[in-house]
Amino acid sequence: MNDTLVAGFLFALDLAGTFVFALSGALAGVRHKLDLFGVLGVAFVAATAGGIMRDLLIGAVPPPAVADWRYLVTALAAGLLTFYFSRGVDRARHSVLIFDAAGLALFAVAGALKAMAAGLHPVSACLLGMLTGIGGGMARDLLVGEVPIVLHSELYAVAALAGAAVTVIGLELHLPSLIAAPIGALLCFGLRMAAIRRGWRLPTAPGT
Description:
By secondary structure, the chain is an all-alpha fold. It has one domain. Helix content is 78%, strand content 0%. Helix 1 packs antiparallel against helix 2 (36-58), helix 1 packs parallel to helix 6 (122-143) and helix 2 packs antiparallel against helix 4. The N and C termini lie far apart (50 Å). It contains eight helices and no strands.
């Protein structure tokens, strides 16, 4: 596949993930009654933390989330949109979960694709995809004083790992990234939303 097309596709996935994770971060800030600066700050960190960790680990420095103004503008636009047009805490809470699942899927897939493009082993690419997906949500939850979802809630890291793995397997089978990535993203998003609705979760320690 044309390298320019692949690079453009990766960039589009990254920006889409940035936008939806910024929405989830801003909604979390609204739900915790933060001021405008706080909402925008949480939105930016939620939107970029996973991608920054990924880029630092593969040596892509400075990370595009810091070097490219479009990431900042995308995150701040999502934060401002949420701050001025969010309707009620209850609705915001439900929306956080939906946007978080979408961001998880997009970043898990984008992380796996970027890791493979950097020449990492497929197993490492799967793990880096998972880390990219969960990084923003972890940072968001810590900033608003909550235990990160990945540590206690319905299938989260597992969903990210599954989406990244399907994407990597697709690439190893020589499927175009334009086909492998949407399949992986849909699997991750579907698993996460099904886990929320049905209460699927990993076992906890006895007596907890």
